[in-house]
Amino acid sequence: MKIKVLIALVILLLLYFGSYILVRENYAVVLNHYGDREVIFPDDKIYLYYFYRPLSRIDGRLTEMEFHIGQHR
Question: Model pTM?
Answer without folding.
Answer: 0.82
